[in-house]
Amino acid sequence: MYRVNGSAPAKQVVDAVRAVEETADRMRRLGTAYGEWEVFDAGAYFDLTPTQTNDLVWLTERVSTVHVRFFADLLLPSFQRAVDYWQRVYTPAYADLRHDLREGLPGSPLLRDGSGTQAAYKLAAVQVEMIERWRQARSVIEGVREALSEGLTLVSLSGAREERNRWRRCWRTQPASGVDPALLPPLAGLLTLTLSFDFPLPASRQPGRIRRLRRNRERRRFRR
């Protein structure tokens, strides 16, 4: 159900559209199914391993509602490759540059006058690949969103605004030194396939339900 073929961007889009639509359907049905579980098991419901569940699903019970998010971007091979490169290659390269900057060494290889350190030149080369991987991931996400634009999946379950609000604080700070502008997109332009859904928490599971029922009954009695 969640498998997305990574052989070509067009194939990723087709498979991802199917996966997102089927996941959205499960999320909608969760409002009815949730109350059937004594202790809800997100992994069993979504047919995911514990590791996959931890990465893809975030669920929390509130006073009278349940909120669930599904991070569907992580299903895309292009997105996975971008994240993998960022973790394994880009982050260590940037850490080396930060070390040189703290030591007072020149950190810009853009001058091409020999003043840049080895770490600065390495990061410049690494950023070329990071930008390309980010471009590919964004292209697939755009393709999926466009394919779903005429349906109700992203209209009713889109978590894009919630995700942007979640990370808004990061865009309020100055960008890190030495990062290519192509890796600093405006917050309003960020796209995501994250799905978000709220539904009522079954009354029998709501904390303080008996107390609220008694309080409401007393209020009605007082009004009479």
Description:
The protein is mostly helical. About 55% of the residues lie in helices and about 10% in strands. The chain has helices at about 10-35, 40-45, 50-55, 75-100, 120-150, 155, 160-170, 210-224; strands spanning about 55-60, 65-70, 195-200. It has a three-stranded antiparallel beta sheet. Strand 1 and strand 2 form a beta hairpin. Residues about 105-115 have low confidence and may be disordered.
Task: Provide tags for this entry.
mainly alpha; 224 residues
Order of helices and strands: HHHEEHHHHEH
Q: Which percent range describes the beta-strand content?
A: 5-15%
Which percent range fits the helix content? 55-70%
Task: Summarize the main sheet.
Answer: 3 strands, antiparallel
Mean pLDDT: 85
Radius of gyration: 23 Å
What strand order characterises the main sheet? Answer: 1-2-3
Count of alpha and pi helical runs: 8
Please report the total strand number as a whole number.
3
Q: Which outline best applies?
A: globular
- Low-pLDDT ranges: 107-115
Structural class, from secondary structure content? mainly alpha
Give the termini separation.
56 Å
